Amino acid sequence: MTSWDALWPREVELSIEEVSISPLDNILHDDKLGHQVAHQERLPVVRVWRHLPVTGLVVSRRDVAGPAGQAAMARMASEGWPLFVRSTGGTAVPHGEGMLNLSLIFPRQAEGATTDRYYRILCQPLVEWLRGLGLDAEMTDVPGAYCDGNYNVAIGGRKVVGTAQAWRGGLAGMASRHPGYVLAHGCISVSPNLDAAIAAIQRFYRYAGRDEVRIERDKATTLAEASREPWTSGEAKASLVEFLLKRLPEVGVTPRLSP
């Protein structure tokens, strides 16, 4: 059985919390948890959560920087596609019904911590979970997919999970002047309307004058499409949580389930 990276904490909080105040509060809850993790006020967190059922896009700060980005954001909102700005990097991903997220929120460490390692730490459980469902999953780049990078999770060569990271502050712990955390985040397409979402992403970058961002529908898929099963985000959430509760102890990590 494949071992997991030694950067995994020995004990984690497995959170299934979703914040119903607003879509943006739900997204930025990861950063609130990160602040608590950095200050040693709670265990490192593994959060499995769904978007609120509001159709839109999640974008990075770079996407909406400057007058062109702000104008594109306003135009998308007028078309019924609000944009929610996350703290991690990357480009636009779908928001709304049919999306599931996995966030790893760990204290910053001094030894051997790199963006590459944290992306692999994030992708490994997702690949194992999808393979356990009988799907041909791997970590890879998918040129032409939305929010492409070297650390997508793909099924049969088509993107199903987009990933991003944010590093905040310095080393974690109370001895640090600015204790920090690492947020590694995966956005899983379970059963969204991918045709509509990708068309919206294409429009947004066209409005923003970002012609270098090219998105192709056939480079992406959803869990429901790839498995030919009518998955909902709720069902996928329960399945992923069940997998983590079983798999984490096998690799020497104790999960503490919280709401």
Describe this structure in words.
- The strands form 2 sheets. An 8-stranded mixed beta sheet has the order 7-8-9-10-6-2-1-11, sandwiched between helices.
- It has one domain (11-113, 165-249): 2-Layer Sandwich (BirA Bifunctional Protein, domain 2).
- It is built from 6 helices and 11 strands.
- By secondary structure, the chain is of the alpha/beta class.
- The chain has helices at 23-38, 66-78, 115-132, 194-207, 223-227, 233-250; strands at residues 11-15, 45-50, 56-59, 83-85, 93-95, 99-107, 137-140, 152-155, 158-168, 181-189, 254-258.
- It is globular.
Adjacency order of strands in the biggest sheet: 7-8-9-10-6-2-1-11
- For the terminal residues, how far apart are their CA atoms? 30 Å
Number of helix segments? 6
Task: Estimate the helix proportion, in percent.
Answer: 25-40%
CATH superfamily: Bira Bifunctional Protein, Domain 2
CATH topology: BirA Bifunctional Protein, domain 2
Task: Give the low-confidence spans.
Answer: none
Task: Give the number of domains.
Answer: 1
Identify the CATH architecture.
2-Layer Sandwich
Question: What is the alpha-carbon Rg in Å?
Answer: 18 Å
Task: State the shape.
Answer: globular
The succession of helices and strands, N to C, reads EHEEHEEEHEEEEHHHE
Q: Structural class of the helices, strands and pairings? A: alpha/beta
Number of strands: 11
Largest sheet, in brief, is: 8 strands, mixed
